[in-house]
């Protein structure tokens, strides 16, 4: 009986296929980043890279660590929900290094929220600037305790 | 000169190529070791993404339209100047119905000058003609089933285990498929990096135990943010749930957003 021999053209085809699949597998293992697939179909290291940015706003907790007196006053006033940096601006550098001077508060900040606007909720205190007493806000209102006068 | 293409030459070339490919992982490991030694990554080490599940809630009845959130977001995330916003505030103005018509309300006007980041002064419609008007803060809806992730051809955008939908900038090609796929218009192509950009849920803040910049800065507490896997007994998130009936934007699309709204009008989409 004659021994079965693979025809040479088929053998070449099989070898070629194996070579292509093999080189694909080798390239795949070498070129895929190590953290790919750690959580899903993406690079797991990307999470850490995105998280490595430095925050800009310090947060009200950082302010209250030193400015306890102001924080306590604020906690009992109408402005208790207002974060420090909403008016004072991002002051993270000042929070971590007290030699850095904090930013100055822009004067127009009261009106940004309190100028009358038909789109604002009705419960919110608003003034029509022309009909209100025409002086600076802080002449009559303490920013940290808005219902009290200086 | 004629190129030599004999067997010896080809074999030498092939061997060199294989040797080159084999040195790749070694080189990569060496590079990583050097990077670890010299560059200290600013990423917080003790954060495990699988142990958190973030949720953002927005109370539209509390938004006063100051736009501090949009401004803070730009500052915090270094968003390019111009009409690019990761979060913004929209103003809805619904006019009174035409006299004699049987409609309950007139036309709806939506605008967002500069994304609301400089506040809203004045009103484009006379007060007497307004039936109802309100502000709606918007941002990435942190879909549980995000269309932007489905269309990304290179796996550059993904949903992290903690619910944040993020972009791997080193993978993003800037093809813009995700920008078209997002039904909430929360993405844009950055003119600086030429990659897609979006709200990261202030990932660099949340992983450090801080609130996102927009939540931190909101003076009316219209934005409530919390961790569903680590709820405290007096968590603002719990209070929000108990006191409000919530809804999501475009529920018919099946994106299952993780951004919940309270007090929305039917006109808001």
Folded structure, characterized:
The complex is a heterodimer of chains A (150) and B (269). Chain A is an all-alpha fold and 150 residues long. Chain A has 2 domains: 8-51, no CATH class; 60-140, no CATH class. Chain A contains 8 helices and no strands. Chain A has helices at residues 8-31, 45-51, 60-66, 68-75, 84-88, 92-96, 109-114, 137-140. By secondary structure, chain B is of the alpha+beta class. Chain B has a domain at 49-85 and 199-262: Alpha-Beta Plaits, CATH 3.30.70.20. Chain B is 26% helix and 19% strand. Chain B has 7 helices and 11 strands. Chain B has helices spanning 7-38, 68-77, 147-151, 177-181, 203-206, 213-217, 236-243; strands spanning 54-59, 87-95, 108-111, 130-139, 157-159, 165-167, 188-189, 196-197, 223-227, 246-247, 259-262. In chain B, strands 9-1-11-10 form a 4-stranded mixed beta sheet, with helices on one face. In chain B, strand 7 and strand 8 (196-197) form a beta hairpin. The longest helix of chain B has 32 residues, at 7-38. The radius of gyration of chain B is 25 Å and the shape is elongated. The mean pLDDT of chain B is 90. The interface between A and B is large, with 39 and 64 residues.
Work out the number of β strands of chain A.
Answer: 0
Main structural class of chain A: mainly alpha
Using only C-alpha atoms, the radius of gyration of chain A works out to 33 Å
Provide the residue-averaged pLDDT of chain B: 90
Can you count the beta strands of chain B?
11
Coarse structural class of chain B: alpha+beta
Largest beta-sheet details of chain B: 4 strands, mixed
Strand residue content of chain B: 15-25%
Q: What oligomeric state do the depicted chains represent?
A: heterodimer
Low-confidence parts of chain A, pLDDT < 50 over ≥5 residues?
Answer: none
Return the string of H and E elements of chain B: HEHEEEHEEHEEHHEHEE
Count of domain modules of chain A: 2
């Amino acid at each position: 009986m004659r021994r079965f021999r693979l025809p040479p053209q088929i053998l070449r085809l099989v070898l070629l296929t194996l070579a292509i699949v093999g080189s694909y597998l080798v390239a795949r293992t070498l070129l895929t980043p190590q953290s790919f697939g750690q959580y899903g179909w993406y690079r797991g290291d990307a999470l850490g890279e995105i998280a490595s940015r430095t925050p800009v706003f310090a947060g009200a907790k950082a302010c209250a660590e030193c400015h306890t007196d102001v924080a306590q006053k604020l906690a009992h006033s109408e402005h208790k929900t207002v974060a420090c940096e909403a008016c004072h601006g991002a002051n993270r550098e000042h929070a971590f290094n007290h030699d850095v001077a904090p930013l100055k508060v822009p004067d127009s900040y009261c009106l940004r929220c309190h100028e009358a606007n038909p789109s604002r909720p009705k419960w919110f205190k608003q003034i029509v600037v022309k009909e209100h007493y025409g002086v600076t806000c802080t002449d009559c209102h303490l920013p940290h305790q808005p219902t009290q006068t200086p | 000169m004629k190129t030599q293409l004999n067997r010896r030459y080809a074999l030498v070339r092939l061997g060199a190529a294989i040797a080159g490919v084999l040195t790749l992982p070694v080189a990569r490991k060496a590079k990583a070791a050097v990077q670890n030694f010299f560059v200290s990554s600013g990423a917080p080490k003790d954060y495990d993404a699988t142990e958190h599940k973030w949720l953002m809630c927005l109370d539209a009845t509390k938004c006063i339209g100051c736009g501090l959130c949009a401004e803070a977001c730009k500052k915090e995330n270094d968003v390019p100047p111009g009409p690019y916003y990761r979060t913004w505030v929209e103003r809805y103005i619904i006019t009174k119905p035409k006299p004699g018509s049987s409609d309950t309300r007139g036309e709806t006007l939506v605008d967002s000058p500069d994304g609301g980041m400089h506040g809203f002064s004045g009103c484009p419609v006379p007060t007497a003609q307004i039936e109802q008007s309100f502000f709606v803060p918007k941002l990435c809806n942190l879909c549980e089933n995000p269309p932007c992730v489905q269309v990304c051809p290179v796996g550059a955008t993904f949903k992290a285990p903690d619910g944040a939908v993020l972009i791997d900038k080193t993978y993003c090609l800037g093809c813009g498929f995700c920008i078209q796929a997002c039904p909430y218009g929360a993405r844009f192509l950055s003119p600086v990096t030429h990659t897609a950009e979006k709200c990261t849920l202030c990932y660099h803040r949340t992983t450090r135990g801080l609130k996102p910049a927009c939540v931190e800065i909101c003076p009316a507490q219209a934005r409530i943010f919390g961790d569903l896997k680590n709820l405290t007994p007096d968590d603002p998130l719990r209070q929000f749930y108990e006191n409000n009936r919530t809804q999501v934007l475009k529920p018919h699309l099946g994106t299952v957003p993780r951004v919940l709204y309270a007090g929305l009008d039917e006109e808001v989409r």
